[in-house]
Amino acid sequence: MSGLLLRLAGPLQSWGERSAFTPVRDTAPFPTRSALIGMFAAAEGISRDEAGLDRYQDLRLTVRVDRPGVRLVDYHTVGGGFPKDRTAATSGGSNKGAAVITRRHYLSDAVFVVAVTAADKTVERLADALSRPHWAPYLGRRSCVPDEPFLLRRHVDDPEEELRTRVPLSRTAPRMKDGDGQEAGTIAVEFLWEQPPPPSGSAEPVPVDVIDVNDVPVSFAQHGRSHTGRRLHRARVPVPRSLAGPPETLTQRLIDYAHLEESA
What we know:
This protein is an alpha+beta fold. The chain has helices at 33-43, 120-131, 159-165, 181-184, 250-263; strands at residues 2-9, 12-13, 24-25, 60-67, 70-78, 100-108, 111-118, 151-156, 186-193, 209-219, 226-240. The strands form two sheets. Strands 8-1-7-4-9-11-10 form a seven-stranded antiparallel β-sheet, sandwiched between helices. InterPro entries: CRISPR-assoc_prot_Cas5 (IPR021124), CRISPR-assoc_prot_Cas5_N (IPR013422), CRISPR-assoc_prot_CasD (IPR010147). It comes from Streptomyces griseomycini.
């Protein structure tokens, strides 16, 4: 088993938790498994109506929340001022005859780093597809274009350990606390695991929240999307303070980290 690392950053992201069209198009506070699997399938050229999602069922996804972002809501209309036959279609094969109004939620200025752990051959296949995608990746919606670097590392032996100890943080380190060298040497960062997290190694155990989400894709078919549930383990984990730094050094720190793979 090995893995790759994705950095999901951009002006806007939106990770919808509902498969049906609703007036309020929400976003989860972190990338969903459905969205990530859809990204991999698109990169490999697998269309919505094609079978083959079983090829992703053994992937283990771990998310580090570098910046949670700020939630924005966009008032959005579709089909206003047009004849009925040019307005939004209905499930019965007709048209609505009026504008469709939605309020779409986004995360602004969020950054997530995702460790994708799988068998070595699967990691190689996904890395090749993400390097030269059949359909371009996006952060939940097509209008949400990812920043670079996107594929941060193609192959690491232990991607979850990389998240905890080596991948640069996209945030500024907070002020150090006087008289507490141990705490001052680390920063608490939120992680989400698909299985119970490993021991933190600190003297105090890290509190873990268990949450249930419904974001495992069963089908991406246009008129038959369906999902099932999974359990996530969420905790704030201390990582080295040295991973953070001022915003003006972030790009160089990411480039230096990415180049470690080239020089290995």
